[in-house]
Amino acid sequence: xxxxxxxxxxxxxxxxxxxxxxxxxxxxxxxxxxxxxxxxxxxxxxxxxxxxxxxxxxxxxxxxxxxxxxxxxxxxxxxxxxxxxxxxxxxxxxxxxxxxxxxxxxxxxxxxxxxxxxxxxxxxxxxxxxxxxxxxxx
Length: 138
Prior knowledge:
single chain; alpha+beta; Bit1; two-stranded antiparallel sheet
């Protein structure tokens, strides 16, 4: 794994229903797994020789925050070149197709989008700077 990706945190809107929050983290996780090189470890074998597909090689805390916290993280992270960010909006969650999502998103600026989740990956200090004051999602 690249040294710059030492930590990855997920932040979910605290007002989302549990099922929607889980869907948000799942969607963010898919993008993180695809775009963050080295975050997934190699497959492992158990004592019986059965193979278990690799899972994340670093901890992934799930945090909660206000909608304004999510927007702030997205905007601040845009100015941090060593941080990978993927966001998820209510526009994405409510769209019936990727085409609908892209056209609806194109109608709003970054600061106006209704963020419901964000994943931030980078060095520990950078991720902590963006998310360190937020509580764990419980």
